[in-house]
Hints:
Strand content: 15-25%
Number of domains: 2
Strand order of the largest sheet: 1-2-3-5-4
Structural class: alpha+beta
Helix content: 25-40%
Shape: globular
Oligomer: single chain
Amino acid sequence: MPEQLLPFRDLIDSGLPGTDTVKQIVPSSPDLIIRHNPLRKFTYQDAITGKRELAALQRYGIHLPMIDMVYVEGCNSGIGQIYTIVERVKGVTLNKALRTPSDEFIEKYQMLYIGLTHYLVDRAKPGSVHFKNLIGHSNFVYGTSRGTTTPEIYPVDVELWFAGFEKARGNPLYHAWLRRLGDIVADIIRAEAISKIRLPKARKAVGSVLESLIAK
């Protein structure tokens, strides 16, 4: 992308781990992480879809830090880059919080995974999309965002990686949706192993979905 098309100036590396996505900051605003993947191309409609799905997450009780998406059109009309601007949450990883969890954290963890389960189930219809890289302990931080004092669990690794859905059992999109459901199960099992605490509410939410799939 030509430099003059970039929407930000004087970006420096954020020092955050991971190589798939470029993570940078503006020195004057170090609490804002600017993320983008230079190898992927997007349309303006992708940005609209991304903002719509972000708003949908909140309806499932999932707390969001300050987050926005900026679309920048490239040299080819209709194709460009999307920069995701995410507030830096001050806190700890889920795995660390699970080692010495409070009752409050355990309740919030279960509500998060109940919300993720419902979000995924509601997107089990042709033509729908969902964030396929949202689920996973490494994608969340337990802490505080700007202007808050009560810690919550926030998604911080939010990228425009969408997966669709198709009911046909042999369809790759159906398999991809099932993998996301499997990721939820794996996270709950991992959380119980780390915390040594059973998570009955989260188990019940995902268990009812699995039972309905088996019944079909």
